[in-house]
Amino acid sequence: MAEGPHRDAVLRETLPRGSGTCLDIGCGTGRNLAIIEELGWTATGVDISEDQLRLARQRCPRVHQGDAEDLPFDSESFDLVMSAWTSTDVDDFSRMVREAARVLRPTGRFMFYGVHPCFNGPHVHSLPAGELVVHTTYREARRHESAPWWGEGGIRYKVGGMRQVPLAEFLNAFVDAGLRIDRVTEPGEKDVPVSITILASKDRSLPSPL
């Protein structure tokens, strides 16, 4: 996961400015909600973890418990939807993206920021000198409960593994949800990126916002 300052900078650079409503899917402790409001939006958060939402409510009153794959909101409820670092946690990333598209208004946009499908995940082994080894488990689109290169007792053992989403499945999730991909970035200065952002529009007939 990206470190705080770098992550915040990516959100500020990638999230459009606006004055409508914005939903943060998988808001966790609500750390992104202040940035959403800083950019002009009225923020709402949703997360499945009530423990995390206890902290989120200290940052924003508009947070709800709910499943990212079955959002507790009416269709066409938000002008902007975002989600950060969730693709490896949800069971069905494609379904989450379809839900994001469903709750978007007709002229709305969806921004995803998170794990790079190719160079970050349960199939990647980071060596001490900074090199990455990509293993043949890349195509295994499932939740990986363990990997030989994960530290014993590390966070992945505690939170229940990590789901691998290969690049084709990742990109097709947006296409199959009826979204038009407007811009893709690979943030950071590392030679091999560990994260990716996607900005997509619901209405494919509209001019690209960027």
Comma- or semicolon-separated keywords:
210 residues; 7-stranded mixed sheet; 24% helix; 6 helices; alpha/beta
In terms of topology, how is this protein built?
Blueprint: H1 4-14, E1 21-25, H2 33-38, E2 42-47, H3 50-56, E3 63-65, E4 78-84, H4 93-103, E5 104-115, E6 124-126, E7 132-134, E8 143-144, H5 155-159, E9 162-163, H6 167-176, E10 180-185, E11 195-201
Parallel strand pairs: 1-2, 1-4, 2-3, 4-5
Antiparallel strand pairs: 5-11, 6-7, 8-9, 10-11
Care to describe what's here?
It is a single chain. The protein has a seven-stranded mixed sheet. Helices cover 24% and strands 27% of the residues. It is an alpha/beta fold. The longest helix is centred in the N-terminal third of the chain and has 11 residues, at 4-14.
- The radius of gyration computed from the alpha-carbon positions, rounded to a whole number of angstroms, is 17 Å
Q: Widest sheet: strand order?
A: 3-2-1-4-5-11-10
Class from helix and strand fractions? alpha/beta
Strand percent estimate: 25-35%
Low-confidence stretches: none
Report the average pLDDT across residues.
91
Report the order of strands and helices. HEHEHEEHEEEEHEHEE
Q: What percent of residues adopt helix (DSSP H or I)?
A: 10-25%
Cα separation of the termini: 27 Å
- Overall shape: globular
- Major sheet description: 7 strands, mixed
- Tally of extended strands? 11
Question: Helical element count?
Answer: 6
